[in-house]
Specification:
By secondary structure, the protein is of the alpha+beta class. It has a domain of 75 residues: CD59. Helix content is 34%, strand content 24%. The strands form 2 sheets. A 4-stranded antiparallel sheet has the order 2-5-4-6, with no helix packed on it. Strands 1-3 form a two-stranded antiparallel ribbon. It starts with a helix and ends with a helix. This is CD59 glycoprotein. It is found in: Membrane. GO terms for molecular function: protein sequestering activity.
Length: 119
């Protein structure tokens, strides 16, 4: 019975981690901010990426399209020459450049823990 509970718990964790059907991305949204952004918004259905762009001491945070996440597209849209940027595709991931543990890593660690408990 304990093994069955562990299997069910593991399955639930995996399903929750990867379930995103009908889900709209949320990104931080600030323009020309001198510090990290605290405002967030729900992206449009056509915007599937969060963008953070740094130029000088200012940063811009917004929803964006993955297909336009390139130096040339961003430079043309914002009319900039010298900037840094990164794009990411999970909720509020454009807060900072700090890498967070993603859902896949969390799920794998959970499964490994459950398997270790069973053996």
């Amino acid at each position: 019975m304990i093994k069955m509970n562990c299997v069910i718990l593991t399955a639930c964790i995996v399903l929750v981690a990867f379930c995103s059907c009908g889900y709209t991305l949320r990104c931080y949204h600030c323009e020309n901010s001198p510090s990290l952004c605290k405002t967030n918004s729900t992206c449009l259905a056509t915007e599937d990426t969060c963008l953070q762009m740094k130029f000088g001491k200012l940063r811009t945070f917004s929803c964006w399209k993955a297909s336009q996440c390139s130096v040339n597209d961003i430079a043309e849209f914002f009319q900039l020459d010298n900037f840094e940027f990164f794009c990411c595709q999970h909720d509020l991931c454009n807060e900072s450049t700090i890498t967070r543990v993603n859902k896949a890593a969390f799920s794998i660690a959970s499964v490994m823990t459950m398997l270790w408990m069973l053996l």
